Amino acid sequence: MTHTRRHLLRTASVAGTAGLALSLASPASAAGKRRGLPTFVFVTGASGTASGDPELTMRGYRTVGVELPGHGPSAGQFDAAYQAPQDLEALAVRSSPMATVTLDDFEAATVAVIRRVARLGPVIVVGSSMGGATLNRVGNAVPHLIDHLVYDAAFCPSKLPTVVDCLAAPEGATSKGDALIQAAVGDPAVIGATRINWRLGGTKFLAEAKEALAGDSTDGEFLAFLNASQPDESVEVPLADCAIDPARWGRIPRTYVRHTLDQLIPLALQTRMIRDADALTRRSRFTVHDVATAHLASPARWAEIVDLLDTIARRL
């Protein structure tokens, strides 16, 4: 693997942080509207934690975050070496619970959740950043169980089949993912994962990482995100083919929420991915909404996205 490919892989692996802002159909035209309020299924991006959204819950919806394989408190990512004071030598060599995890595993876990909640009513699946790769896969696999897909500043490979391919496109050239690489720990070939030490100190890392991920959030909001982020992510997922199947994925109504201040997945790349997908599914195009926020939506801007999700649900 060349240096450039390793760089793109690491950048892709940390490009899922907006998933932390989240929290728990056949398309209506194919299966008919199911009774009951919709369920929101949230798929986090890299380093994220499964979570529902409390505001949507208070509005009467079911919300569930998919516990992706290798993630979660029982997976073993958080240990004494990662806890302050850190043991950096141990952290650099500890085998990762993500070592054998693939995008197929993410797909299977998400489909299992969708199958359970689809019995209760319409299903809206929301993915952030690298979570878009999983959205593509489940849209290809079970379009008859999903009523709407929402890509929240998420990767949507189509003509460019992988997350790494998307980042390598000219529209991805301005990504500031380099800021996160300085926190990479260990050799992915040894530990079996891309490991980011989100608890790395130093004003340079904190300032550059905040600019890349959360430029419109407060310092406190950004630090809270770092403290909750999981260090390991799959090496395989950013390289996995997750291109859309126009005949299946293309049946599902879908929305793309562009983050216009995004410095990790630049606006030009978000627009390119929308355009490429629409070109393959001309009878069913993205509805696009712009929100003036960074890759990791600030709380104020996330409230706007919640209102949009509410509107989508009410129209089912």
Write down the overall mean pLDDT: 89
CATH superfamily: Alpha/Beta hydrolase fold, catalytic domain
Radius of gyration: 18 Å
Shape: globular
CATH topology grouping: Rossmann fold
Q: What is the name of the CATH class?
A: Alpha Beta
Task: Give the strand order of the largest sheet, numbering strands 1, 2, ... along the chain.
Answer: 2-1-3-4-7-8
Protein name: Alpha/beta fold hydrolase
Signal peptide: 1-30
InterPro entries: AB_hydrolase_1 (IPR000073), AB_hydrolase_fold (IPR029058), TAT_signal (IPR006311)
GO molecular function, one term: hydrolase activity
Question: Could you explain the architecture of this structure?
Answer:
This protein has 316 residues and is of the alpha/beta class. It has a single domain, classed as Alpha/Beta hydrolase fold, catalytic domain (Rossmann fold), CATH 3.40.50.1820. Helices cover 37% and strands 12% of the residues. It has 13 helices and eight strands. Residues 1-32 have low confidence and may be disordered.
Question: What would the keywords be for this entry?
Answer:
316 residues; alpha/beta; six-stranded parallel beta sheet; two-stranded antiparallel ribbon; globular
List the helices and strands and how they pair.
Layout: H1 3-13, H2 28-31, E1 39-43, H3 54-58, E2 62-65, H4 88-91, H5 103-118, E3 123-129, H6 131-141, E4 148-154, H7 163-168, H8 178-181, H9 188-191, E5 194-195, H10 203-213, H11 219-228, E6 232-233, E7 254-259, H12 267-280, E8 287-291, H13 299-314
Parallel strand pairs: 1-2, 1-3, 3-4, 4-7, 7-8
Antiparallel strand pairs: 5-6
Helix pairs in contact: 5-6
